[in-house]
Amino acid sequence: MRRSSLAAVQSTSLTDLPYQTSASPARVQGLDEGNSQARADSEHRRTGAIQPVITTFPGVDTAEGPARRLGGVLQPSASMAIRQGMKRNFIAAVALMLPLSPAAAQDEDDFRVRVGLGAQLRPEYIGADEREVAPLWELDIARGAKAFRFEAPDDSFGIALVSEGSFSAGPAANIESSRKNSDVGAPVGKVPTTFEAGAFAAYELSKNIRLRGELRKGIGGHQGVVGTVGADYIWREGDHYVVSVGPRLLFSDARYQRAYFGVGPEAATAAGLSQYRPDGGVHAVAATSGVSYQFTPRWGLFGFARYERLIGDAAKSPIVRERGSSNQLSAGMGLSFTFTIKR
Q1: Cα separation of 215 and 253, whole Å?
Q2: Higher-confidence residue: 204 or 44?
Q3: Residue 5 buriedness (CB in 10 A; 0-12 / 13-18 / 19+)
Q4: What is the average per-residue pLDDT within 199-208?
Q5: Full DSSP string of 96-151
Q6: Is the pTM of this model over 0.85?
Q7: For domain 106-341, which CATH number applies: 1.10.287, 2.160.20, 2.40.230, 2.60.290?
Q8: Geometric angle at alpha carbon 140, from 139 and 141, rounded to 5°
């Protein structure tokens, strides 16, 4: 019995075994693929080629095709890997071709310089009722990509040697035009062109409010002392546009006021005016507005308007009352150009 049973088992084919009757087509296909892979490995060993073992998993799909297991790690298909690489390279190339912003392109050690030139209409002299056309200019300097420091249209030229937070101070200079007898229409005395040198101090209460004071001494000309205190309210968006408006208080010593508003004995006789000897003090109040606008990073427009009212001893002068006006109006406009000095 044992021998016949053994013979029966030995004579039975694999397809007759019970567990084979329920084998799925996928398993049979797997056996066929295993045989194919074995033949391929034998061929590779014969030819000396080395190939990775790639197995396809039908149940794991991606948008680019079935995923494969390479060396025990699940990998995307070759076409998907190629497309992802091309996508990364494209993004990197586009990033390199994008233009740098002005702030990124500007070296912090460079200097930006803005120069402006235009024309203005102003009184012929202090207290005049006639106006003249005169040149209008501006000069601003900033480091790197920082915005230009705010300057009101009637600020004297100054250099901020001290700049700590909201406070700045330094030397200031101004040129006061001359007054001739022909300007007044009477021989009241000539006042030569005056170079004024002194100092300024400014404090920014906030990003919108600035206080500033100046004190200058005349060298030649009127030889007096003149000063200004004022405030400005500022609206701005970097250097794109700046708008400001603010009040002013102007004061001077007796020498300054006598040069422009006084009438000596000889002048009174020659001009037919009353003698007048003013003292020092506040001689005017004013309001100033300014605007600047950049059309491009290089080209811009700037302008101003100013009203000044002579008061005190200045307004009482016969030169002002009879030959001039206590109302002083001025306005101007010009073009600006910005360039960079590399360091």
Answers
A1: 11
A2: 204
A3: exposed
A4: 96
A5: HHSPPPHHHHS-TT-EEEEEEEEEEEEESSTT-SSEEEEEEEEEEEEETTPPPPP-
A6: no
A7: 2.40.230
A8: 130
